[in-house]
Amino acid sequence: MVKVGLNKSIKLRLAKIIDLENIACLHAQSWQENYNEVLSADYLANKVVADRMVLWTTRLTSPEANQAVFVAEHGQVFVGFICLFAENHQTYGTIIDNLHVKASYKGKGVGTLLLNTAAQWANKAYPEIGLYLEVLACNSKAMGFYSSLGAINTNSGYWHTPCDSKVKEFVYCWSSAKMLLAEIMSK
């Protein structure tokens, strides 16, 4: 067990199919809370949950060989998750494709614990390659969080949204999982 914030114990484990609804719903809720200026109101109100259910059904029933998904729980309560795809990009390495924490657990160390678990997995399996995330330009809190853990904004591009729009995003990188682990340990 790892202690975080207000003396709350968080358990981290690999995701299972029974986590499907929790993961998809938190993913959708996070988009509803953070991306209302870049995703259509119709998509967020009527389509995002079903869309994320399809995505996570595929990811949890037919995972890619290079995929890892970890969940965080406080007691029996699901509080967050992280998803990685190893060796996803020739230059940047392993992508942290999703990191979502329930709003009531943000700022209590859950995101850092999930990143730590992901970095340990990546360091063990792929120690010589980097880690990266793609962060939407409208998500300044996430950019600040990743920067505080030593990630460097190295590139920009555009995300083609499920609503058929283009949204500016940035690529935040660590040169290796070991570098992220060292940053986390220094905090």
Keywords, please?
8-stranded mixed beta sheet, 34% strand, 38% helix, 187 residues, globular, 5 helices, Aminopeptidase, alpha+beta
Structural overview:
38% of the residues lie in helices and 34% in strands. With 187 residues, the chain is an alpha+beta fold. It has one domain: Gcn5-related N-acetyltransferase (GNAT) (Aminopeptidase), CATH 3.40.630.30. An eight-stranded mixed beta sheet has the order 1-2-3-4-5-6-8-7, sandwiched between helices. β5, α3 and β6 (131-136) form a beta-alpha-beta unit. α1 packs antiparallel against α2 and α3 (110-125) runs antiparallel to α5 (177-186). The mean pLDDT is 94.
What is this entry, summarized?
The protein is an alpha+beta fold and 187 residues long. The protein contains 5 helices and 8 strands; from the N terminus they run ββααβββαβαββα. Helix content is 38%, strand content 34%.
Number of strands: 8
Mean pLDDT figure = 94
What string gives the helices and strands in order?
A: EEHHEEEHEHEEH
Number of domain units? 1
Q: Low-confidence parts, pLDDT < 50 over ≥5 residues? A: none
Q: Order of strands across the widest beta sheet?
A: 1-2-3-4-5-6-8-7
Strand count, sense and barrel status of the largest sheet are: 8 strands, mixed
CATH architecture: 3-Layer(aba) Sandwich
Tally of helical runs: 5
